[in-house]
Amino acid sequence: MGVFVNVVEVEEAFERLFAGEFDPEVFPIALAEAIGTSNANISKLKSGAMNRTDLPGGTLLNGKFHFLPAEEGKTEEALETLCKSKATKTRKIRVAITTDGTSVAARDTKSGEARFCDYAELKDNFGFFLPLAGFERFKAADENPVDIRATSRLAKLYDALIKANPEWGKDENRHVMNQFMTRIVFCLFAEDTGILPDNLFAVV
Q1: In terms of domains, do 126 and 151 share one?
Q2: Number of structural domains in the chain
Q3: Is the pTM of this model over 0.70?
Q4: Which of 9, 38, 73, 75 has its Cα between 20 and 30 A from that of 154?
């Protein structure tokens, strides 16, 4: 696995890797895979050669995340331990994350924002982890998971259109494509608000 080119790939990776049961040993490796870590670094992380954690049982990926499995019902306490960890600060960790397999607690060390959710909902909160894959988030979009999902779907449509019509992706056609995508968004909004008839654009 390599660097992702759009947020759709991150979303699909989270859906694929975090749909099953929690395993404290597999989880940090799956997270590393979900954010596009190279196969070489994944191997080093598995062997422990790349794990610079200072916490027993923890897993740290430089510049990315610091993970610590939590005891049942103690995810908030484990998150506090992660945030106080010297390695979290010195290794420039972006996200501290912990889970007991039922609940997930995470904190973005740059924005200070925290995220608490059920383990089963982790795949629906992929937007919080986008910075780990190289995509910075706008706060307004992150507050609404529906907005993130809609944006990823439009990105997927854009990519599909360019793949089917390579000439549309040329620099001289970029403005026209942007206008086309904007009009699609307007039509979908107009349908949702009743300006246009229902199901005129939406797939049912």
Answers
A1: no
A2: 2
A3: no
A4: 38
3 state DSSP class of 168: helix
Report the alpha-carbon distance of residue 131 to residue 74 in Å, rounded. Answer: 26
Residue in the block written with tokens 């059920």: 118
Please name every residue paired with 118 in a beta bridge, in sequence order, or none if there are none: 103
The token pair at 7 is 């947020």
Residue 148 has what pLDDT?
63
Q: Residues 11, 61, 21, CA angle at the centre, nearest 5°?
A: 50
pLDDT tens digits for 102-133?
A: 999 999 999 999 999 999 888 888 889 999 99
Given a contact cutoff of 8 angstroms between Cβ atoms, the answer to whether 78 and 85 are in contact is no
Q: Mind listing the pLDDT tens digit for each residue in 137-195? A: 655 444 555 566 677 777 788 888 888 888 888 878 878 888 888 888 888 777 777 77
User: Whole domain around residue 156: which residue ranges?
Assistant: 146-192
What residues have CB less than 8 Å from 40, skipping those under 6 apart? Answer: none
Please give the torsion angle defined by the CA atoms of residues 197, 200, 203 and 204, in that order, rounded to the nearest 10 degrees: 50
Which residues, in sequence order, are bridge partners of residue 66? 60, 96
